[in-house]
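Quick check before the chapter quiz. The format below is the same one you will see on the exam, so make sure you can read both the input and the output lines.
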Amino acid sequence: MVPIKNPSIVIKEFPNYDDYKRVTKLMEACIAHDNISLKLELDYKLSHSFHEMKDINKSNEFMFYEGEMLIGYIGICQFGSEVMEVNGMVHPDYRRRGVFSRLYEFVEGEWLRRPSENMLLLSDQHSCSGQAFIKSTGAHYDMSEYEMFLMNEPGEKTASRQISLRKAMNKDAKEIARQNNIYFQTAPGTELTLPEEEAKHGVDIYLAELEQSCIGKVHLNREDSIGAIYGLGVLPEYRGRGYGREILLRSIEKLNEIKVDDIKLQVAVKNRNALSLYQTCGFEETSTMDYFKLTKRNLN
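Here is the expected output.
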C-alpha cells in the first residue's frame, strides 16, 4: 500500500486542459486495472471551460492529489438537467485510504447547496468498489444503461432517404425540450438546450423531418476519435414505420464522414425496442452502467 504523504484537494467549476490530461491519465489507469467503464463527460466539460463564464459558487470538479499526482477524482454532470449525475474513481494504488469518501463529502455538500432534489450516483455494474461505496450512501437503484459500440456493418448500410436531418437552431429549442420530455420524461421546467450553443461544445443536434414535418431528433458528438449518438427519438405518431432505423443509419453516415474510429451510444436496459434496433444495426453491448438515486427528502 502506497502511503499518502502530501495530500491536497482542488475544486473547480470546469477543468482546464491540464486537468483534462491528468483526469484522462487516471481514468486510463483505472480502466486498465479494473476493466470497467466510466462516464465522466470530460470532452464536453473541457469545451464548456473555454466558452462559459465562471461561477465561483458552483463546483463540478473534485480532485485529490498526492503531491503533483492526481490519485482521486469525482465529477458532477448537470448541463441543462435538474438531476446531478456523479461518477468518479481512485487510482488502484491508493484505494481504501478514504480518498473517495473525502471527495464525496464535498460533492454531497455541493448537492445540498443546489436546488436539485435528486442526485444520481453512477457505477459500472462490475465495479465492486464502486457498487459497495454507493450502497454505503443509502442510494437506491434507479436504472441501468448499456454502452454499445458499432461492431458490425448494419444490415442496411444506407438510409432510404425518406427523411432529412436538419441541423437544429436556437429557435428549435422548445421543440427539442418537448421531444426530450416525451422520450426521457424530463421536467417541463428544465433549462432549454440551445443547439447553436451546444455546437460550440462539439454537439450537433439534428431534427428529423418528413415532408416538412418534424418527426424526431438525434444528437451527435465527437469525443477524440469516437463518435457518439444520443438523444435519438421518434415522435409516437410516427413510430413503427422504420424512421428510427433511418435516423440511426443517417447518424452513422454523418459520423463516418468526419472519420471517427469508433461509434458508440447508450441505451436504457429497459428500452427493449431501442435495444433491438441498435443490435440489428450492428451495435453490441460493451458495458453496463448502473444508476442509483439519492433524494433530499429521504435524507436522515
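If your answer matched, good. The radius of gyration is 20 Å.
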